[in-house]
Design goal:
Shape: elongated
Strand order of the largest sheet: 1-2-3-4
Number of helices: 3
Strand content: 15-25%
Number of strands: 8
Radius of gyration: 23 Å
């Protein structure tokens, strides 16, 4: 008997909800408001050749700084609103990121993958050590799981080799204080079923 059938189900769910994405939306609106202040200020300084400085180089640096900063926060704010709006629109089965069941896992759109089809898992932790973090929220989970799947008979080609398939599970906006324990429990579920877990760290801007 397969060892996949010997473990009792321990319910765990990562389901996207509006409350997970509103902080990002609010931060994005604040960035756009800041851009609305910086961009006109930068335009005014450039148009009037201000401020008066001992050198043209110093004047250019000072006058262009608000414009460049304003453009940066405006772009970040627009990206934040776009991604938050797209996440807020996810409903029902499309809102599922990861559910653990006795038979396997359920992913976005209701896709079901049996435990025995998962060969190994890559657990990615995203980091951002920048001094300025426009949309980076330290309170969020910032995790991703990549499920590497075994080849199925129907995937084999005439030479007997199939394509490598994987399923990506983004767990980015969940509050870490509430979901970190569930995340750790999820990794333990894979390990207990004999599914190896590899760990990686990657840098993410937002």
């Amino acid at each position: 008997m397969s060892n996949h059938a010997t473990y009792r189900e321990e319910p765990g769910e990562f389901v996207s909800r509006g409350v997970h994405h509103w902080p990002r939306m609010e931060s994005s609106f604040k960035l756009i408001l800041l851009a609305a202040i910086l961009l006109p200020l930068g335009y005014y300084l450039i148009a009037n050749g201000l401020p008066e400085t001992p050198s043209d180089r110093a004047r250019i640096i000072v006058s262009w700084t608000p414009t460049i900063a304003g453009a940066a926060v405006l772009i970040a704010g627009c990206i934040g609103i776009f991604t938050a709006t797209r996440s807020l629109s996810r409903k029902q089965a499309d809102a599922i990121d990861l559910k653990l069941r006795a038979s396997g896992v359920t992913l976005r759109g209701g896709r079901k993958i049996p435990w025995e089809q998962i060969e190994f898992v890559t657990a990615i932790t995203f980091e951002n050590n920048s001094k300025i973090r426009l949309l980076w929220d330290r309170a969020e989970l910032h995790r991703r799981l990549v499920l590497h799947l075994r080849e199925q008979p129907q995937q084999l080609n005439a030479q007997g080799s199939g394509r490598t398939e994987s399923a990506r599970v983004d767990l980015l906006r969940y509050p870490a204080a509430e979901y970190l324990r569930l995340y750790d429990s999820t990794l333990e579920q894979f390990k207990r079923r004999g599914i190896p877990v590899q760990f990686e760290k990657k840098w993410m801007f937002t």
